[in-house]
């Protein structure tokens, strides 16, 4: 069954729905949190069918790739279901893309059309100015993500509503093969250019069935906050699709804005929200937090990046943590609300329909309980493969269909998993593995640290990497003089020395910054931190740092034992 038919089952006389009872067709589905405009469930498939008629007339056919490039909006929702109704492939693009990044996705995917927000037209035009000659057709199929009355003056492009062709009627979809590609999301590209992840209709519908249990208590009386980017698989699955199975309205915000989020929770009585850890950090440290009535909020789900126990305790709320990747559509592990306080920092247990292994990345042997290993998963929501990239697909899978996540994890006797770090982000200090996420979690426990990012800097003097931390002071960097910043950095370094093993100490230094660079999905952009470190440090400076002998609170150096007081 294709994704469109799963969410909007065709009426079959005398036969009940196969997977779930669809909500009332007259129910509210999406609300623009800024304007109050509404989109009802019954409008979505009808308008998608009308617009798909116009999209086909423009030359888009079954199996073609169509890009969506814009911030969250009602029109983004409409474009998504229009493309599915056309039996084409949806390829969401990150609204924060620079021209060269957008161009890479357009060229790599072979997109035949694009829906774009008017505000992002300059980025699209700049990308197309750099485009090769064999990418001309997309110029003829540029459609705007806005109502007709918000079109830019003298624009040559039609908005999505102007694609409607009611005269052609509503076309019945064919029985699309389950394994046909429905989505082509692009991974974050931490190891190079972003790769297109092929998500099939079977992947998506399996994920929606998997998620029914955690969402079974939500209904039309609840309200979900839709602030996560729809272009990321986390927001795409859990905001654009899943709420349609429970009939729960989604209040859409175009992007993260601390005040708008707090206002929307109060105004719309939001009861459930999805965040990434950086958003939670911002709320925890917000001076406006107590100015709003947030009593309606009874459930928060976080994912896309590790969430430390310190952050969970700071938020003073029980909420489920999940885990997943673009390649797994995304959820593979879930934590129920009632379990959160008992297993803080865990990503939960393996989700229904999934299997998991923890494997030593060197020997390929499964590790023992409590020992770290690379997380491998297998299940019906795992991607088909990377778009037109046979080698990357081959490297991503182990025999038996096991997908290698690249994340280092542990599991306890009760089956609760903890993410330790990314396999390729581990810092190697004199043969010891230092997980940046472990240090970041500890740093967030410091009363004066609002956010943190850790990288390794290479010391030629000792032929090893040294852990280096970047921290955001609570209250803001601008409130501290250079001397006070250095004092805080020294205090934090000493504080860490007293709490971690010798090999994890911050020999690469501590630096105060105004913000930690992160992707829209909440991942720390360590490449940017490494580039910053290069500009801050020369070879000589790094050699000098290598000689630093951190001392603990009792005055002993890192290489000396602490003498017991008799």
UniProtKB/TrEMBL annotation:
InterPro entries: AMP-bd_C, AMP-bd_C_sf, AMP-binding_CS, AMP-dep_synth/lig_dom, ANL_N_sf. CDD domains: Firefly_Luc_like. This is Putative AMP binding protein. Residues 439-523 form the AMP-binding enzyme C-terminal domain. Keywords: Ligase. The keyword Ligase applies. Residues 43-387 form the AMP-dependent synthetase/ligase domain. One of its GO terms (molecular function) is CoA-ligase activity. PROSITE patterns: AMP_BINDING. Belongs to the ATP-dependent AMP-binding enzyme family. The lineage of its organism: Eukaryota, Fungi, Dikarya, Basidiomycota, Agaricomycotina. The keyword Ribosomal protein does not apply. It comes from the Eukaryota.
């Amino acid at each position: 069954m294709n994704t469109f038919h799963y969410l909007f089952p065709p009426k079959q006389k005398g036969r009940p729905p196969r997977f779930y009872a669809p909500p009332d067709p007259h129910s509210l589905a999406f609300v623009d949190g800024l304007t109050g405009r509404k989109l009802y469930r019954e409008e979505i498939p009808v308008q998608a069918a009308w617009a798909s008629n116009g999209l086909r007339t423009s030359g888009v056919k079954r199996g073609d790739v169509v890009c969506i490039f814009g911030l969250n909006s009602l029109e983004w929702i409409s474009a998504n279901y229009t493309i599915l109704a056309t039996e084409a492939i949806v390829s969401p693009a990150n609204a924060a893309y620079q021209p060269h990044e957008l161009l890479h996705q357009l060229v790599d995917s072979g997109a035949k059309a694009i829906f774009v927000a008017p505000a992002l037209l300059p980025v699209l035009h700049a990308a197309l100015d750099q485009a090769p000659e064999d990418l001309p057709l997309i110029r003829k199929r540029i459609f705007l993500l806005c109502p007709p009355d918000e079109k830019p003056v003298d624009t040559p492009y039609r908005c999505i509503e102007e694609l409607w062709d009611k005269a052609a009627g509503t076309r019945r979809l064919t029985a699309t093969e389950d394994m046909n590609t429905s989505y082509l999301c692009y991974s974050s590209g931490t190891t190079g250019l972003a790769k297109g992840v092929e998500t099939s209709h079977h992947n998506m519908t399996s994920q929606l069935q998997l998620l029914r249990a955690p969402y079974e208590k939500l209904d039309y009386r609840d309200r979900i906050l839709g602030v996560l980017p729809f272009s990321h698989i986390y927001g795409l699955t859990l905001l654009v699709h899943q709420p349609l199975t429970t009939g729960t309205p989604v209040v859409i915000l175009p992007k993260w804005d601390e005040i708008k989020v707090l206002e929307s929770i109060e105004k719309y009585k939001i009861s459930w929200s999805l965040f990434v850890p950086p958003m939670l950090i911002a709320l925890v440290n917000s001076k406006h937090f107590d100015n709003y009535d947030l009593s309606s909020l009874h459930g928060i789900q976080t994912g896309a990046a590790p969430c430390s126990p310190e952050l969970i305790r700071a938020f003073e709320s029980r909420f489920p943590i999940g885990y997943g990747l673009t390649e797994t559509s995304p959820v593979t592990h879930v934590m129920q609300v009632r379990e959160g306080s008992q297993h803080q920092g865990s990503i939960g247990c393996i989700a229904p329909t999934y299997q998991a292994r923890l494997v030593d990345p060197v020997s390929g042997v499964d590790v023992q309980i409590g020992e770290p290993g690379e997380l491998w998963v297998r299940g019906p929501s795992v991607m088909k493969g990377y778009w037109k990239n046979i080698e990357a697909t081959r490297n991503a899978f182990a025999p038996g269909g096991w997908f290698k996540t690249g994340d280092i994890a542990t599991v306890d006797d009760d089956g609760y998993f903890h993410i330790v770090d990314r396999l390729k982000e581990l810092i190697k200090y004199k043969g010891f593995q230092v997980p940046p996420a472990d240090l970041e979690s500890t740093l967030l426990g410091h009363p004066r640290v609002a956010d943190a990012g850790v990288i390794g800097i290479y010391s030629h003097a000792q032929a090893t990497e040294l852990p280096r931390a970047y921290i955001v002071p609570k209250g803001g960097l601008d409130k501290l003089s250079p001397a006070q910043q250095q004092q805080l950095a020294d205090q934090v370094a000493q504080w860490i020395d007293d709490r971690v093993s010798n090999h994890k100490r911050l020999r690469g230094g501590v630096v105060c910054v105004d913000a930690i660079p992160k992707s829209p999905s909440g991942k720390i952009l360590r490449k940017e931190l490494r580039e910053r470190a290069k500009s801050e440090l020369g070879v000589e400076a790094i050699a000098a740092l290598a000689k630093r002998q951190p001392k603990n609170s009792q005055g002993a150096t890192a290489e000396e034992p602490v003498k017991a007081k008799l």
